[in-house]
Amino acid sequence: TQLLEQSPQFLSIQEGENLTVYCNSSSVFSSLQWYRQEPGEGPVLLVTVVTGGEVKKLKRLTFQFGDARKDSSLHITAAQPGDTGLYLCAGANWGKLQFGAGTQVVVTP
Amino acid sequence: KAGVTQTPRYLIKTRGQQVTLSCSPISGHRSVSWYQQTPGQGLQFLFEYFSETQRNKGNFPGRFSGRQFSNSRSEMNVSTLELGDSALYLCASSPGRGGNTGELFFGEGSRLTVL
To answer: How many separate helices (H) and strands (E) can be counted in chain A?
Structure first.
């Protein structure tokens, strides 16, 4: 059983469309991280959110941490083929980083 | 600055055998964490080493073990391999304790297939 539930599991969209990926848990986390993993590579950190209600923007990517620090979302505006990858959320607690199963995003030209 | 290096990248073993995977962290990083990644379960935390001491352990059987050397390089060992051990094993390093808000830097992984 995953401590962190990510939805949807798979998302296929056309270039230029917007998308949102969700990360939910019943647990409270001291911080939450988002990673992107491309085929044949390890995950790469995109952002860390720490404060409940925090919103961070990274170019076309917007990350939000829920007020109760139990959930988070990742929104991509005007997706590009380079955004294709496995998006992973990870919650930090008690010295451990627990990962969700990931959302596979495919952006076609 | 060299990234996290994992060897071997690919390996095939048969049931009952054992395997040792190696990880060289980024120079200066003292924490090394190991994760198992499978399509069904995602990334599952195996253990974390900091300054040669195991600081945290996930819910894996005792067949999974690891160690860290004085130069921060780490190895993990899986004994009596089972079919279900087939997975991508990822190593990640960080300057401080990896389970805190610090960034994890991942290697490309070692893909293990058990036949």
So the answer is: 0, 11
Bridge partners of B44, per DSSP, are: B36
pLDDT by residue (tens digit) across B2-30? 799 999 999 999 999 999 999 999 999 99
- C-alpha distance from A15 to closest chain B C-alpha (Å): 26
Residue holding tokens 């073990």? B65
What is the C-alpha to C-alpha distance for residues B11 and B112, in angstroms, rounded to an integer? 5
Q: Which residues in chain A are closer than 8 Å to B104, comparing Cβ atoms?
A: 33, 43, 45, 97
What are A82's two structure tokens? 């380079």
How far is residue A103's CA from residue B88's CA, in Å, rounded to a whole number? 17
Of A42, A44, A98, the CB nearest to B45: A98
Tens digit of pLDDT for each residue in A2-56?
Answer: 579 999 999 999 999 999 999 999 989 888 999 999 988 999 999 999 999 999 9
Distance CA A22, CA B66 (A): 33
Contact (CB, 8 A) for A104 and A8: no
Chain centroid, CA A22 distance in Å: 7
Cα A76 off chain centre by: 10
Q: Decide if B8 contacts B19 (C-beta within 8 A).
A: no
